[in-house]
Amino acid sequence: MTASPWGLDNLPYGVFSRTGGETPRVGVRYGDHVLDLAGALHDEVFATGSLNAFMARGSAAWRDTRAVIRNKLATDPAAVEPHLIPLDRVRLHLPIEVGDYVDFYCSLEHASNLGRMFRPDEEPLKPNWRHLPVGYHGRSGTVVVSGTPIVRPSGQRGAGVFGPSAKLDIEAELGFVVGGPSPLGGRAGRFEDHVFGVTLVNDWSARDIQAWEYVPLGPFLGKSFATSISPWITPLEALASARVPGRAQDPEPLDYLRRAGQWGLDLALEVRLNGEVVSRPPYREMYWTPDQMLAHMTVNGASLRVGDLYASGTVSGPEAGQRGSFIELTWNGTEPIKLSDGSVRTFLEDGDTVTITATAPGPDGNVIALGEVSGTVNPAR
Amino acid sequence: MTASPWGLDNLPYGVFSRTGGETPRVGVRYGDHVLDLAGALHDEVFATGSLNAFMARGSAAWRDTRAVIRNKLATDPAAVEPHLIPLDRVRLHLPIEVGDYVDFYCSLEHASNLGRMFRPDEEPLKPNWRHLPVGYHGRSGTVVVSGTPIVRPSGQRGAGVFGPSAKLDIEAELGFVVGGPSPLGGRAGRFEDHVFGVTLVNDWSARDIQAWEYVPLGPFLGKSFATSISPWITPLEALASARVPGRAQDPEPLDYLRRAGQWGLDLALEVRLNGEVVSRPPYREMYWTPDQMLAHMTVNGASLRVGDLYASGTVSGPEAGQRGSFIELTWNGTEPIKLSDGSVRTFLEDGDTVTITATAPGPDGNVIALGEVSGTVNPAR
């Protein structure tokens, strides 16, 4: 029997409440159950509505807690059984209180594709792109958990043109949850002491709003209406077998951006539109790795807080079927996607559901699943 | 005798602790004293380290509380006297827990000046500028209270060039503190039901880092190392006599940006370098008014949270002595400022102290002071 992708090698953290009004609390997913950690570990840090208090204990506590949970599940099933709740009897919540949310732009192919479309008369990549991981701050207050309906945003789509976005899109990304803070005026230390785990991110994007507003200060309302994340935060330790060196870089990055510890990640993403796979973005093809993003984000002395979230930017690989956004998959709507029911899509229509999933190699040839991030488009108000 | 600029018509809110380790709590400034509100009003909502819990009560409570405080101070000085603490015996703290921080770009002159310097071969204003208040998200975790030392940031200043910023600058701005939330997928309502008050903002900026990094996604590390705000939040009601229609706009803004209620503000800012006035930016000259910024920020369905902060962007007026940043005052360093001691400045040097103050007209020909925002530059680490 193949090991479950939600077995002992995975154990992602989330926040749940039992159907019927219990206040949210922290659990780990194990198979098709949630383990109630406050009950199983007799620790009130888990009887709160976010992972932040637990994360604030630091990376040694993260490792120890994971070891304790694994041990209990493996060796004393009878003791934990009363604290295992079937997934279909819980509601999942946003797992973290988000501090700052930063979105990067780390795929060479995504940045090149968007450059070609948004600035057809220029070099696709700006001169800085190969020298630093380009990023910007997004809106942390509109980070929502998977399953939250996405209301189609309205806004300006050009001079004097106002209305619902006609180019509603997704960006399939990987997000990194900061559990270890750093001081103002200092820099981040080791990646694994700051980053607690990863989550899938859908950075919903209104391309028509974005294209009109984004010069010169960057994307704003074209992104800020919603960003969805998975309810499950996969701890870094569960990704040990997914670690790869990361894509070759030219020119050689500056010292502060030198990679340490192989934090390229061999994750296979899938993007589904109404259940049908439309793209398979390979995370291992990303140009900038998450340790580089972290080093860059703090090199100017910016502090980190527990709960900060940063995302990779759209994961797009070199092949056409590996692009993580519809603007790329349909080349700004000029090459519609054909779906199996005979219909076509350029950008998203009301009622469409987009679901992003991912897997990683586990330690024994098995597979680890990341929590999916899904959302359905509701009509504009 | 002239009325104090910190009298009954002002009464800004802040968070203080008595020298000697008391936990921070909410007060209002009255003359050279702080009124301890938890003590004076017997209300535990003020016995917390930020204004957020009080702000969450809503705009009716803001008005009622202000009326009660004014009445007590005016009619029953003996009763409040035990709760008045001399300013020189308290420490002032960051007054709010900042949710999201958005920075706009609302001065026609500032946007034009920067366009001329950063993009000399193009029209200074981008095509969108007169159609919408351009803005972007900044880093809320590095918003600090006035007096916090500012460590000179390091970063990339060009391809392969790394080191301390050689173009450290300020931006003199007005900030708006959101006390009334709005739902995801909805829009903000009346300005005065969402915005609790105003604060002076210094959006410290490293121009060399910013110029290299900011395409195409906007400013990031050139700004995220620190943003200083005043310890005092001036309630909107104290600015009643400062309200003006706002500068004429051409073209006519779209419906959702139509002004309501005269939220142009006749504030006179002063920027001091090491005590010497170097600029007097007039807030009333701003092109986009704060009610327009609020409407724009939420037109796409983005929610507001208690504690969100948004700022106007650099306040620069039409005259040379009214520019709110050194990059403008010195035209990117090409026209140094002469100081009274015979020295000159282009950008900031280590040890420099920048202080921004402002006044507004009060109800009886008197003057209201805003809390100053000040910071001293420390050497790079």
Taking all Cα atoms into account, the compactness measure Rg of chain A is 20 Å
Q: Whole-number average pLDDT of chain A? A: 97
CATH architecture of the largest domain in chain A: Alpha-Beta Complex
Shape by Cα distribution of chain A: globular
- CATH domain class name of the largest domain in chain A: Alpha Beta
Low-confidence stretches of chain A: none
Total discrete domains of chain A: 2
Which two chains touch over the largest interface?
A: A-B, 66 and 66 residues
Distance between the termini of chain A: 49 Å
Helix count, DSSP H or I runs of 4 or more residues of chain A: 9
Which fold does the CATH topology of the largest domain in chain A refer to? Answer: Fumarylacetoacetate hydrolase, domain 2
Short synopsis of the structure:
Two copies of one chain form a homodimer. Chain A is of the alpha+beta class and 381 residues long.
